[in-house]
Amino acid sequence: MNRYLATAAACGLLATAIAATGAPLHAQDSPAPIPAMETAEPMTARDLVTMPRLGAPTVTGDGRYAVFAITVTDDETLKRTSELHLRDLTDLDAATTKLDLLGSARSAAFGPDNWLYFLSDREGAGTGSKAGSVQVWRASLEADGSVKGPLPVTDFGTDVDGFSLSPAGDAIAVWAEIARDCPRFGCDGDGTAHLPSPGNGRLYDGADGFYRHWDTWETPGTFSRVFVFGLENGKTVGDGKALDGPPGDGASITGDTPTKPFGGGEDIAWAADGSAIYFVARKADGDEPTSTNLDIYRSDLDGGAPENLTAGNLATDTSPVPSPDGRYLAYLAMARPGYESDKLTVMLRDLASGESRALTPDYDRSFHSLAWTPDSRWLVATAQDVLDTPAFRIDPQTGAVEKLDLMAGNEAHIANVMPLPGERLLFARDSIGSPSHLFLSDGWQQAKPLVLVGGPEVGAMASVQTTRFSFAGAGGDTVWGQITKLEGADGPMPAILYIHGGPQGSFNDGWSSRWNPRVLASQGYAVISVDFHGSTGYGQAFTDSINRDWGGKPLEDLQKGLAAALARDPQIDGNRACAMGASYGGYMVNWIAGNWPDRFKCLVQHDGLFDMRSFYYTTEELWFPRWDFGGSYAEAVETYERWNPVNYVNNWQTPMLVVAGERDFRVPYTQGLASFTALQERDIPSQLLVFPDENHWVLGGKNSLQWHETVFAWLDRWLKEDGEAGE
To answer: 3-state DSSP call for residue 213?
Structure first.
């Protein structure tokens, strides 16, 4: 058994305790203590970086077996690998079996034949693919974890990025980076043979859309494209049919499916009878950087131009999920073009009549992760709600919404909800105190733990206590926050004000592999997070309220929230405090430096916006600043400059650590360089940490460890009794 993996039976009392995580008392949420708690060591940065990570499960059609991935990190090299595990869902006491597929395996999915299909870069796929290329494979599994195979499914001259099997298992959709003028899958090899030579320059035309996005420079003329192939005896046959239609056809679509940068298999859905595929795309043209108009298309798999089912809505349409009985297509839609954080409403399309209607127009929460029950009776979705992300049951006939009570205490963060036959729900749940574990609910009742990934190790660490609090924020509105600190620790604790990004986001009750309150609290700090105006989970009006007010109500909420936390918990030493945040949180750190300059001993600014004019002209998703500031920079100069941190640098006086990633195209790393220059010019103690290979986030194992150790050293320097500020 993997040292990080335990079933409910193996964990005994710990499993029971985690099932009851989040007892109502003070809304606390942390793994239950184990014997000899007084000797437990606090969580370290290396503990966080090497903590195993649970992936989304795939389940056999009868709902009996689940396979899920666990990403493990080597303690010494910090290299990450993915392991697949098998679990019988009908026996809570069953052991979890690690699968040996004789090579790499990821993105696993059960087919209707109950064979396990997956991606692998192993050799032996055939003569069409080069050594080390990623192809689709399949294997037959036994209940004891033994394997027949694996056998290759595809043998293409290009890597396969993802796949989706038809309901009958007689066809497969595969996607990869393919030149738009390629009529066949992989006819362009690596997707660059169509580019001009002899130089390696990339020539971009202003009419073609993004030239770079998130962390990747676009390859002109190349897109993520989906092709459908027949399957015979488990292998692809024929040349395949493109879902986006023939190149050069005015009715065809040119764009990425899955959508970039975060789209995946949820952007592609087979019709219940396998006769069509519904997919999400955003048209790639000169308007792409300013458009949130994702549409849902239908392809009848003949290679012709697809039909745009949502052309009437110029805002986002996403997450298509056909009902198992073939009657409906459910999906999520926003109403306002250009706004990426508008409320996602559940929509229902009658596939016989072609008429669509909003199911949840009056329910003031934004839904995600939509799924049907196998009998087509209910839709199940998740949505942020105050500091939790619970699951909801939605009646497709009436639109009635019911919040499910699946966990004892707080729901915390529920994700990857999968309805199974027999009114069962398989889902993952995590919290500030605990990483993601796998749970099973029977009959819509409170769930029981199936797999506790890292459970024993987390339970053996010194536990933390998270307390929720509310206060009257800007305009008298109720604002929520959380305090996380070591449980049972003596003496005063320095304060860390955590500022979330977005700005339409939340530091809700969930685990994070990057900005993790538990690991920071384990260093002896009290971590205070505030869901200021603009945060999600409190109704759309609260989210909208940050529009054209980036430095107004949010700063007032942070000021009042910090005061409320200090008044609530006298153990927190407010005289030793540091503020830290990333993205919009980094913007707010820069804003605080100039507009609340005498409050903190230190600041940590990660990928923060420093100069709103230069940011506007160098970021890629222009719809974002245009919505939040009321237009382009030229159209709304006064608003951009009103909330521009660079205009207040003469007030800066607080020591600041600046972090930036060179592959960050959302907030280009030059914003960090500029803020560091401003600090140097004013002789303010400062440090700059730049990662050449990271984007808007720090994802690599070694880089993550360096980030944490650098941040901890900076905080210790200014906040600890023997630090520089205390000398």
So the answer is: strand
Question: Do residues 628 and 546 make contact, with C-beta atoms less than 8 angstroms apart?
Answer: yes
Round to whole Å and give the CA distance between 675 and 538.
Answer: 33
The neighbour count for residue 565, using CB atoms within 10 Å, is 24
**Per-residue pLDDT for 332 more than 90?**
yes
Between the alpha carbon of residue 349 and those of residues 357, 382, 709, the distances in Å are 7, 20, 51
Per DSSP, the three-state class of 319 is strand
Please check the confidence at residue 33 and state whether its pLDDT lies above 80.
no
Lowest mean pLDDT among 204-213, 278-287, 455-464, 509-518: 455-464
CA distance to 112, 154, 243, 545, per residue, from 160 (Å): 21, 9, 16, 43
Which residues have CB under 8 Å from 377's CB, separation 6+?
none
Whole-number Å distance between alpha carbons of 585 and 499: 5
User: Where would I find the H helices in 381-473?
Assistant: 455-460
* pLDDT for position 727: 55
Q: Confidence class of residue 36 from pLDDT cuts 50, 70 and 90?
A: very low
Select which of 291, 607, 664, 686 is catalytic: 664
Of 314, 290, 276, 317, which is closest to residue 632 (Cα–Cα)? Answer: 290
Q: Measuring CA to CA, how many Å separate 681 from each of 182, 649, 676, 718?
A: 54, 10, 9, 21
Retrieve residue 59's tokens: 């389940």
Q: Is residue 664 among the annotated active site residues?
A: yes
Instruction: Tell me the C-alpha distance between 583 and 7, whole Å.
Output: 38
CA 677, CA 656: separation in Å to the nearest integer?
Answer: 12
Q: Which two tokens stand for residue 40?
A: 């437990």
Percent of the chain with pLDDT over 70: 94
d(CA 365, CA 542): 11
Nearest alpha-carbon partner for 580 in 417, 712, 725, 489: 712
Q: Which of 356, 366, 434, 583 is the catalytic position?
A: 583
C-beta of residue 500 within 8 angstroms of C-beta of residue 584: yes
E strand map for 199-322: 212-213, 216-217, 222-232, 235-242, 268-270, 277-281, 295-299, 307-308, 317-322
Closest by CA position to 258, among listed 278, 279, 288: 279
Cβ contact 527:484 at 8 Å: yes
Cα–Cα distance measured from residue 383 to residue 76, given in angstroms and rounded to the nearest whole number: 38
Closest among 687, 631, 619, 701 to 659, alpha carbons compared: 687
The whole-model pTM stands at 0.93
Mark residue 240 as left, alpha or beta (left: phi above 0; alpha: psi -120 to 50; beta: remaining): left
583 is catalytic: yes
pLDDT band at 721; cut points 50, 70, 90: confident
Write the CA distances from 448 to 16, 247, 441, integer angstroms: 8, 51, 6
Q: CA dist 679 to 186, 301, 673, 685, 696, Å?
A: 50, 58, 10, 7, 22
- Is the model's pLDDT at 82 over the cut of 90? yes
Handedness of CA 571, 574, 575, 576 (dihedral sign): positive
Q: In degrees, to the nearest 5, what angle opens at C-alpha 49 toward C-alphas 44 and 53?
A: 125
| 660: nearest Cα among 712, 612, 703 | 703
Alpha helices for 144-279 (secondary structure H): none
